[in-house]
Amino acid sequence: MPLEGYRILDLSIWLTGAGATGHLADLGADVIKIESPTRPDPARNAPSPVLLELCNRNKRAITLNLKSTEGRRIFYRMVESADVVAQNLRPGVAARLGVEHATLLKHNPGIILASFSGFGSKGPEAESGAFDMIGQARSGLMDVLSDHRPPNDVRYIGPIGLADQNGAMTFAFGILAALASRAIDGVGQHVEVSHLSALMTLQTLPLHTYLMEGGELPRPPDRTKEKEPLGNIYEAGDGRWIAISVALADADKYWPDFCDAVELSDLKTDPRYSKGPARSKNSESLIAILDRQFATRTADEWMQRLRALHLIVSKVQDYRDLITDPQVEANAYLQTVEHPTLGQKRVLSPPVAFSATKPRYRSAAPSLGQHTDEILQEHGFSPQEVERFRADGVV
Question: Exposure of 297 by Cβ count < 10 A (0-12 exposed, 13-18 middle, 19+ buried)?
Answer without folding.
Answer: middle
